Amino acid sequence: MPRGEPQRWAWALTGSGHFFTECLDLIRGLTGIDLFVSRAAAEVLRMYKNKFDLPEGARIFRDTTASAAPVGLLYEGVYHTLVLAPATSNTVAKCVCGISDNLATNVFAQAGKCRIPAIVFACDTAPELETMAPGGLVKVFPRRIDLENTERLAGFEATRVVLSLTELESALAERRRALPHG
Ligand SMILES: Cc1cc2nc3c(=O)[nH]c(=O)nc-3n(C[C@H](O)[C@H](O)[C@H](O)COP(=O)(O)O)c2cc1C
To answer: What does pTM read for this prediction?
Structure first.
């Protein structure tokens, strides 16, 4: 980490339509942020006709390398917090099993190994949900395995799993208050 530069937010976006747009809005409200975008997230962004429109100074890292090369930054003290939001059931399942085979799962695993606190907004939070598909609202019924994985992730060290947008907003505000530069 270059001397004197404040630490940044690391935000990993995955390919979940559920609260994708709302998470982009939250990202735009943060300063000092780098985005780590899964391949599916890059596709979903286009399907929902979204654009990043990021705050000045924000950097975007896309999933283009087998080794998830940008995660080296987590070892350099660049980040104070990882936000993984929205987190697909796929990414949550991999994280719970300790798998790190792409950019998003690697960022989560390396944050854990570097003791960087993580906030995860899991998609599958209830047996019945309404979610925004590209064509409008649809009902989905997360399976037992999806709900169990969300619960198991909440037991991970230095990991706060949030289950709603309001809870995500509060977790971000709390974390911001705890930072030396606010
Ligand atoms: C339009 C669209 C919306 C999707 N929404 C969700 C979602 O809300 N939750 C989810 O778990 N997966 C969702 N998926 C499926 C994921 O994108 C897919 O499982 C992908 O492999 C996840 O990769 P990632 O976890 O590496 O981002 C969606 C896919 C599409 C095409």
So the answer is: 0.95
